[in-house]
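U., I forgot to send this yesterday:
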Amino acid sequence: MRYKILGKSGLRVSELCLGTMTFGEEWGFGADKEESRRIFDTFTEAGGNFIDTANKYTNGTSEKYVGEFISTDRDQYVLATKYTLSMNPDDPNSSGNHRKNMVQSVEASLKRLGTDYIDLLWVHAWDPMTPVEEFMRGLDDLVRAGKVFYVGISDAPAWVVSQANTLAELKGWSPFVGLQIKYNLLDRTPERDLLPMAKALDIGVTPWSPLGGGVLTGKYNRAGGDPKRYAPDDPFGKMMLNDRNLAIAAAVQQVAADLDRTPSQVALRWLIEQKKRGVMIPIIGARSHAQLVDNLKCLEIGLAVQHLAALEDVSKIELGFPHDFLAYETVRSTVYGNTYSRIDNHRN
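Result:
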């Protein structure tokens, strides 16, 4: 395992992050405590130090398990958890990004985790009801109090993240150093705005659902008959099971066959290889020890130029306006005259 610097910080995190939404069986698809421990131990023995959980995961069990697993050597781990999602559906203040929910959620997470600090606190989702100024100031207060070291944001529009970090820079508050997004070969829409924004602002990217709800493992292509009748294991997987995505999964299978590897390893490696789009640290989750062992082997392989080209062709998207418009040769010549091809742009 190698390590990467997370965004505009000095924090060193492993090149893969262990997602622990599967720690606990309360949601009907996770691992029991013994299997969760095996998954955790194997990840850390491979050199992984970046652990991701959330207050909402398996109704708090995930945080309890993680807290117990890291307790013998707490300072060794980069512990990330999240707040925002409702913990009490009948209480309007038990959700959202406002200061009350923020403080209450962090205090509860600290108790479940059995620690007195959180390395990285994620805003779990954008809450348009809460002013950006309020949650950025609140997050900075937690950092100044020593309860949180760094902050990040998940599932938010690029303009919100840009506004938040610009405000933080002007006010001297703690900026977001991490961005958590859904990004994989099936869903490359973050390439339109989120990834260029993260690269420009030096924010580390931690893609979730890197295997597309299990579709990129190829198991639905292999199922026989109509693959649409097989419900994906991942709760977000059903929306990703369509003809286009099955064709992408088939292309991943072909590359995997060429390399004598599994499709999961190829899909994860593709994410790691997206260096031109920023610092990528895939979040790998597993329901079993065997799944984790297989996923970790993505660190052993590389993808040849022809393999990357094949995956690019089958999964590419239209960037839309204004990106595609500005890329037209006639528009470029109008903007830059005859000099575009003679300018070495280090920002590309």
